[in-house]
Amino acid sequence: xxxxxxxxxxxxxxxxxxxxxxxxxxxxxxxxxxxxxxxxxxxxxxxxxxxxxxxxxxxxxxxxxxxxxxxxxxxxxxxxxxxxxxxxxxxxxxxxxxxxxxxxxxxxxxxxxxxxxxxxxxxxxxxxxxxxxxxxxxxxxxxxxxxxxxxxxxxxxxxxxxxxxxxxxxxxxxxxxxxxxxxxxxxxxxxxxxxxxxxxxxxxxxxxxxxxxxxxxxxxxxxxxxxxxxxxxxxxxxxxxxxxxxxxxxxxxxxxxxxxxxxxxxxxxxxxxxxx
Length: 276
Hints:
Elements: H1 2-22, H2 28-34, H3 42-50, E1 53-60, E2 66-74, E3 79-84, E4 97-102, E5 107-113, H4 132-143, E6 148-154, H5 159-171, E7 175-177, E8 181-185, E9 190-191, H6 193-199, H7 201-206, E10 216-218, E11 232-237, E12 245-253, H8 255-262
Parallel strand pairs: 1-7, 6-10, 7-12, 8-12
Antiparallel strand pairs: 1-2, 2-3, 3-4, 4-5, 5-6, 9-10, 11-12
Helix pairs in contact: 2-3
C-alpha cells in the first residue's frame, strides 16, 4: 500500500512539473506585452518595473471629431505600446486598436478585430432590438475568439523618432490626421503562433488573443487578392517625415479569411436517439 502511494505521489509531482513547464508563470514582461492590465491595479506595478512613460494627446479626425489617444514607452524593453480606443472612433469609420512597436526588430503589430464581426452573420440568430450587453454576449459566443486578429509589418521608425513625435503630439494637441497608408492581409501570409513566436517572441506575446485560431497576418502593400468590402482603419501610426500628425493605416482583409470567420461553427451536440 505504501509503495502504491509513493508511486501515485510521484506521478502527481511529474504531472505538476510538466504543467508548469507547459504554462509558464505570467511574468511582468507578459503583462507588459499582452497589455491586458491598463485598467487594473497591476498596471502600476508593470509601469514602475519598466519605467513606463505615458503620453496622452488628442487627434482631430477629417470629420472634425476629436478622439483621445495614449502611448506607453518602455525604453528598457525597446518597445512602445499605443492604444487608440476612443468610443467615437467607430462612428467616424475607424477601428479600436492597440499597437506594439518593437524597435529592436523594426516591426509594428496591430491588435484589433476582423471587419464584419460587430454583427452576427445572417444565418445566425438575429440580435436586433436586444440590449447591448445581451448582443455582445451572443457575439462572443458565436465567434468564440475567431474575430480576434493581429496584423504586423516592418517599420523604419526608431525609438528616438517615436519619442520626439510623441512629445510633439502632446505639446501640439489636438494633432491632425495624416494621409492613410494602405495594406492587405492575405491568407497566404497567415502565420501560425509557433511561426510568429520564432519570428518575433514579443509580437507573439502581444498577439496572444489571436493565438487560438492562428489569426496572425503579415501585411503587404501590393496585392491582387479579392478583399472584403469593409476594411479596418487603425489610428496613431508614425511618419518620421511629418511631425505632430497621427497616421491612419487601412487594412483590407482577403474575402476567404472573413468567410471562414463568419462561418457557423459545427455543433458537437449529438442527435437524440429515437424514442429517447
